[in-house]
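Example protein was shown:

_____
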Amino acid sequence: MTSQNAETDRTVLRVSGGDAREFLQNLVTNDLDRLAQGPVYAALLTPQGKLIADFIMQADGEAILIDVAALWAAPLLQRLSMYKLRADVQIEETTLKVRRGTGEAPEGAVSDPRNPALGWRLYGAEGGDDGSDWDAIRVAQGVPASGAELGPDSYILELGFERLNGVDFKKGCYVGQEVTARMKHKTELKKGLRIVRLDREAPEGAEITRDGKVVGTLFTQAGDMALAYLRFDRIGTGMVAGEAQVTVLV
């Protein structure tokens, strides 16, 4: 699945019941109290701190909608159901669709919590978007997509979750919190997502090398810019991906 499809092909889950908010608060990377101000970006991690799924949460009365890439909806639903135990929580897949755009927002739309450049989202009977070049926006803003830059076993801080308002370091415990907090406070990140420039097109997923050593992997491209996952200690002049010269911008 391309990154464009991962961002467009979405499934909306609903979590309801008397324990719904406490249930999610104890599991996900962000603070559900923020739902009072609008949608919240978050992730569910393994106990080892690796990504299971990233998603956008939106209040729906006392229930919570979870807007997730369709390719990750089933594993997310399965994992949430595993944690439910005897809590008063119901988790279901809805028929809601996601519309999005970067122009004037329609009534009922909410802002994408990851970055203002990603515009608005609207949950209802119709899906689709306004034709914006989403990959170009994501690349320019350094926003990873499910199934592209974000994959199973990703560490969220390496993929920019703090900058994307996707993790709260003051909320207390959640699954994977200990590893994530240690990466934040006790270590220096050695790998991560960067915006790069290419002098020509290169295959998505291509290895980026320098002096014969692997520096990282090339992901979504838009024009002469792209997102790449890199080892910071190997970044420098002379990086290539296929026939393309690669230069780190941010």
Notes: The CA atoms of residues 210 and 239 lie 5 Å apart. The chain has a mean pLDDT of 95. The radius of gyration is 18 Å. Residues 191-248 form one domain.
